[in-house]
Amino acid sequence: MADNDKGKGLKRGLTNYGDTGFSLFLRKSFAKSMGYTEQDLERPVIGIANTASGFNNCHRSVPDLIEAVKRGVMYGGGLPVEFPTISLGEPYLNPTSMLFRNLMAIDTEEMIRAQPMDAVVLIGGCDKTLPAQLMAAASVNLPAISLVVGPMLTGSWRGERLGACTDCRRQWGRYRAGELDDQQIAEVGSELSTTAGTCMVMGTASTMALMTEALGMMLPGGATAPAVHAERLRIAECTGERAVQIADKRLSPDEIMTPHAFSNAFRVLLAVGGSTNSLIHMTAVAGRCGIKVDLGALDRMGRETPVLVDLKPSGTNYMEDLHKAGGLATILRELSPFLHLDCKTVTGRTLGEEIESARTWSQDIVRSIKSPLKPEGGIAVLTGNLAPETAIIKQSAATPELLVHEGRAVVFDSLEDLAERIDDPDLDVGEDDVLVLRNAGPKGAPGMPESGYIPIPKKLAATGVKDMVRLSDARMSGTAFGTIILHVCPEAAVGGPLSLVQEGDRIQLDVPNRRLNLVVDDRILEDRRSAWKPPTLPVGSERGYLRLHLDHVEQAHQGCDLDVLKPRSSGAITPE
Ligand code: FES
Q1: Model pTM greater than 0.90?
Q2: Ligand 1 in reach of 126 Cβ (< 6 A)
Q3: Ligand 1 and 87: CB distance under 6 A
Q4: Helix H or strand E segment including 402
């Protein structure tokens, strides 16, 4: 039950003038200036979070979606009212969009809470937007329903199908290796992102959309319909109509986002070979519900959850293909034995009922559980003296031969150091070495940028080296691939063991046994620890949002939320 329901519609949360009758009179009077009738103003109010922005190409269809949502709200008997929030367009934000996810969550939460609405439609999509909105919805606990903009369609270059952004990285790698010239890479750049919508591989946006549908916060089929498909508008209309119904029934997020529902979402993350970022985001959303994510349990879940979906970067296809194959329902049907089918969804029905009623047909994008794409889930959780609070690897996108590896550390102290030296012809590096990047975590960079995809040094790329073991406290785009260890916790900037690694140290990776170790004597490490000094704080960190972030951001295994935004733990744990 929502806790914020004093009055309904425009009567909710009156502005405080010391006279409630006057407050309502004034509010209605001003609302009438927008052409509403008295009758309109008696309807349940459905807020629509508008995340359109000239700095967010993924969301350029949001105005059309808002019109469709409004239609649905009015068919349902409600009054649709859109309101703006921060929008986060992934490639436009400096130093990284992740720094602002929590800011968007604060903005969205406070605007839902402060303004008079009975339910809210959250229109998100681009990487950080959907998690920020779910975090807000969990904290306000007002009836809420997610609608994503949907994935882009693929482009084509000289007969080759292309999509953002696995192919961005692959083609850029070819350019760096001298296989493509300036003209060719410019042509590729025009074909990677060709429509409205989010990246159409199994990156963060696609993974979060699928997890949100599995979580029960989105209408069935809502994750995969392409942004420019008419089905996307129909989903938007139905979402608006459903928003009125959940307002009426007061179906609040805490009835949907339960530990079992998060288990279902994490199961999907593993089965789709999803983005590692989604693990951080869903951990933050669960945290807002007072639920702790047990990474050991997630790893055990991964061992019994095969990767079923043949999409890039783990496979070969794109989101439009998954949509044609039946979308999430096709995946859930295969995963049924592992799911909590009795979880209630935003439709008011259970996940099991939704799977039952979904249509099915022959397809080859979602494999059967008996002949999966990969036998184990996409993400493995590592521990060891280099990552006492865990690190992760997306093993489904790694080179199998490198999953057990020992190599010499080649260390980059910061993003600037990396940019300066990685392509230096004199860099002492070989293909068996382990590239280490540090001070790129939640506090270190700050904001934990997607720089874990350390480029292969140019001189090695030119000889045909495609992958090396790479290791950092950073994140990585969900669209990237390679043998890349991420989210090393605690990060170097707070004195984690990563800060003690020196050039030439041996690093052992053993993914089957989930180990990540620095082969250096404990006493030597203690000496290095005594000499360690924290890195200089970034410019601008003495005030404002950056100060708030640095003072309160938590580590990756805790979701990178700000500690002051989380409720007290309920003691509940997921996955279970
Ligand atoms: Fe928006 Fe990839 S840039 S989802």
Answers
A1: yes
A2: yes
A3: no
A4: none
- pLDDT digits 0-9 by tens, 230-240: 999 999 999 99
Q: Candidates 198, 208, 210, 319: which one to mutate for ligand 1, based on the most atoms within 8 Å of Cβ?
A: 198
| Contact status, residue 227 vs residue 149, Cβ threshold 8 Å | yes
Alpha carbon 474 to its chain's center:
14
- Distance (Å, whole) CA 210 – CA 365: 15
Among 261, 249, 437, 465, residue whose Cα is nearest residue 344 = 261
Could you tell me if the CB of 129 is within 6 A of ligand 1? no
CA 170 to chain centre: 22
Q: Summarize pLDDT for 406-449 with one digit per residue, the tens.
A: 999 999 999 999 999 999 999 999 999 999 999 999 999 899 99
Q: Give yes or no for residue 227 CB within 6 A of ligand 1.
A: no
Amino acid at 491: E
* Structural fold of domain 379-540: Glucose Oxidase; domain 1 (3.50.30)
Query: Strand 484-486 relative to strand 144-148: parallel, antiparallel, unpaired?
Result: unpaired
Give residue for tokens 């690093």.
507
User: What is the DSSP secondary structure assignment for residue 368, as one 8-state letter?
Assistant: P
CA of 351 to the centre of ligand 1 (A): 28
- Decide whether any atom of ligand 1 lies within 6 Å of the 168 Cβ: no
- Residue 126 alpha carbon to ligand 1 centre in Å: 5
Q: Is the CB of 58 under 6 A from ligand 1?
A: yes
Return d(Cα 65, Cα 71) in angstroms, integer: 10
CATH 3.40.50.2300 fits 43-153+195-357, yes or no: yes
User: What are the sequence ranges of the domains in the chain?
Assistant: 1-39, 43-153+195-357, 155-189, 379-540
